[in-house]
Amino acid sequence: MPTKPHTLRRKLLTWLLLPLLALFFIRAGYTYFYANELANRVYDRMLFRLTVSLSQQIIYDSSNQHIELPQTATEILMTDELDVLYFAIRDAQGIIIDGDQRMPFIPTRRNQDGKFFFDDQIDGHKIRVSHFDLTIGHKRYLLQVAETLIKRSLLAREFQTGVLLPQALIIILATIIVWFGIGKSLAPLKRLQKAVSERSHIDLSPLHEKDVSAEVQPLVNSINDLMARLSEVLDAQNRFIADAAHQLRTPLAGLKTQIELALRQNDAAVTAQAMPSILVSADRMTRLVNQLLALARNEPKAERAIQMGVIDLGALASNITMEWVPQALEKDIDLGFEAPKSPVKIQGDAARIKDLIDNLIDNAVRYTDPHGQITVHVSNGDKPQLSVTDNGPGIPPEHRERVFERFYSVLGNTANGSGLGLAIVREIARMHGATTHIDSAADGTGTRISVVF
Ligand SMILES: Nc1ncnc2c1ncn2[C@@H]1O[C@H](COP(=O)(O)OP(=O)(O)OP(=O)(O)O)[C@@H](O)[C@H]1O
Ligand SMILES: [Mg+2]
Predict the structure, then answer these.
(1) In this structure, which of 165, 168, 169, 288 has its CB flanked by the most CB atoms within 10 Å?
(2) Model confidence, pTM
(3) Domain housing 424
(4) Same domain, 15 and 152
(5) Ligand 1 atom closest to 423 (CA)
(6) How does pLDDT run across 7-39, given as a tens digit for each residue?
(7) How confident is the model at residue 417 (pLDDT cuts 50, 70, 90)?
(8) Ligand 2 centre from 360 Cα, in Å?
(9) Three-state secondary structure call for residue 241
């Protein structure tokens, strides 16, 4: 199943949004960690200050060497509207001698200031714990103060939304703006599509689409180019059909007159006498129709059916020349063939190359007077080359280009053809990348038509 092509809008949006979203998520990840870090930094400082303040409230009873934190001090200093606070005093052995027995165990690592923070839990609630070392009455103690994390997570969340929400809004806004922007930019393209689809198939005039962007203008130009070329081809085809119809009409009318005349004569002998010339007319028409078919076969558009292969031009031309010997003999023409001994290889379609050679030899045999001389010559100099030379009337230089046109014949020629042979030759040569030339034989008389591959 063919997949539906992506719309330009979707492609542009994807290319814009994917990097933006990727950036947003990287930013969100960074903000998440940074917000937690920031909240810890702010509240750790306050927690440590509280720990120091509490340490100053510790009372030491030197008589029984007992220390404690008075309830009044804890009540005043350890009230917080959001978090729950805990404290504990440990002796040098780490045993809790005052405060909350659930306080997590002494930390094993401390920094140089003696203050240290770490995360732990009390009754399943996450807490942050701060420490302070004390020396009272030559004994070492450790004061620990802990608090739950509500304030911290509130601050972190506020920071995250404060940073990320405007960014998310910008991305949404950018998407909406780009969505409409693309729609607006694509409007001329839509109009162009409408103009093309609503066109009649015979209207090949150029498109006049204004306000298309610079990127689309070349497309409009190419479409207009194509229209112009199509229009040329259609014109050429119409001309060709008109020419062909015209060419067929004249011999058909002649044939009809000949038959009518023969029938009117009511005499079997006279009718029989008319038959050969009727046959000649019919032959000429058959030739014309065959030439038309050959031309149609070798039209530029028919090139897809071409079957290229390696051909030995010498062998092919030699065989074709042999086929023409009987016709040459009828006119007592000496038909010769020259080629190098080694094969002359070309890339080509053998059937079409045969058409080409047939047409050249046909012209030579047809236009050369009886007892004349024709040579088919294959050579392999710079490039493979085939030429057909005759000592007939020759083609005057001013006609040498025009004889390649369709239906063009040099006036005054006794043998009338349909005027398509050399047009066919040129088409076949063109599709083989070969060039055609007309000049006269080495002695300046006759005709030499060469095809250089
Ligand atoms: N070898 C030649 N010698 C003299 N004139 C030639 C020769 N070959 C072609 N011509 C001239 O060129 C004209 C065009 O030749 P072309 O082969 O295209 O058409 P045609 O021979 O008239 O018709 P078709 O080949 O279609 O039957 C001919 O009418 C003829 O006047
Ligand atoms: Mg011809």
Answers:
(1) 288
(2) 0.56
(3) 305-452
(4) yes
(5) 18
(6) 778 888 888 889 989 999 999 999 999 999 999
(7) confident
(8) 7
(9) helix
DSSP result, 341-353: SS--EEEE-HHHH
Cα–Cα dist 312/82, whole Å: 101
Q: State whether 272 and 323 are in the same domain.
A: no
How far CA 290 is from CA of 92, 189, 223, 324, 441, in Å, comes to 120, 48, 36, 18, 30
Q: Name 142's bridge partners.
A: 90, 133
**Would you place residue 115 in the very low, low, confident or very high pLDDT band (cuts 50, 70, 90)?**
low
Structure tokens, 269: 């002998």
Residue 361 CA to ligand 2 centre (angstroms): 8
Instruction: Write the CATH number for 27.
Output: 3.30.450
For residue 393 and ligand 1, the question of a CB distance below 6 A is answered with yes
Collapsed DSSP state (helix, strand, coil) of residue 57: coil
Q: Do 355 and 291 touch, CB atoms closer than 8 A?
A: no
State whether the beta carbon of 429 lies less than 6 angstroms from ligand 1: no
Judge if the beta carbon of residue 418 lies within 6 A of ligand 1.
yes
DSSP string, 99-132: E-TTPPPPPS---TTS--EEEEEETTEEEEEEEE
Q: Give a yes or no: residue 178 inside a domain.
A: no
Q: What angle do CA 137, 144, 96 make, to 5 degrees?
A: 65
Instruction: Decide whether any atom of ligand 1 lies within 6 Å of the 375 Cβ.
Output: no
Where does residue 79 rank: exposed (0-12), middle (13-18), buried (19+ CB within 10 A)? Answer: exposed
